[in-house]
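User:
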Amino acid sequence: MPRFQLPVIATACLILFLGYVLFTTGYESLTCERVSPGSVQCEAVESYLFGLFARSQDAFTLEDVQVNSELRDRNPTGGVRFSHTLVLQGEHHQFTSDPFRSPLSEAAIRKQIQQFIRGEGPIMLNFQRSTQLAALIRSSLLALLLAIVSWSFWDVRWPPAPVSAEEDVV
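Assistant: Predicted structure:
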C-alpha cells in the first residue's frame, strides 16, 4: 500500500503565501463625519485580506490637522504641483494619509480641512491608504515565484520513502 508523502517545499511555500496575503494585503481607512459644527467624529479601520476582515477599529474625535507639503514639479505653463501628506490627530489616535499631488498650497488645504471642522462644506471626509491593485499585483507575482520554487522542489517529500532491499544490492 503506497504511503502518503507530503511535498515539504510546496507546503512551506503555500503557508508562506497564505500568511503574506492575509497580513499584507489589507489597508487602513479613515472616515470622518461632522456631528455638529466644531465636532468631527472619525473612525479608523485597519483590515486584512484585501479589506474583507476588519483587524481593528478605533473611533476618535478629530482635534487637529497638519499638512506636510513638498514642491514636486513646475508646470511649463506656469503652475506648480505640491505633494501633500495629511496628519489628522485625535486624543489618542493619529492618521497619516498617503502622499497626494495637488496644485493647492499647504495653507489652502489646511484651511479647507479647518472649514470642514467648523461646519462648512461636505458632512463626511474619507481617506484610504494602500491601493488594492498594487496588493493584487504583488500577491500575484509572489504566487508565481513560489509556484516555480514549489515545482522545482516537488520531489522533496516527507516522510522519506523507505529504501527497499533490492535498491541496496545494486
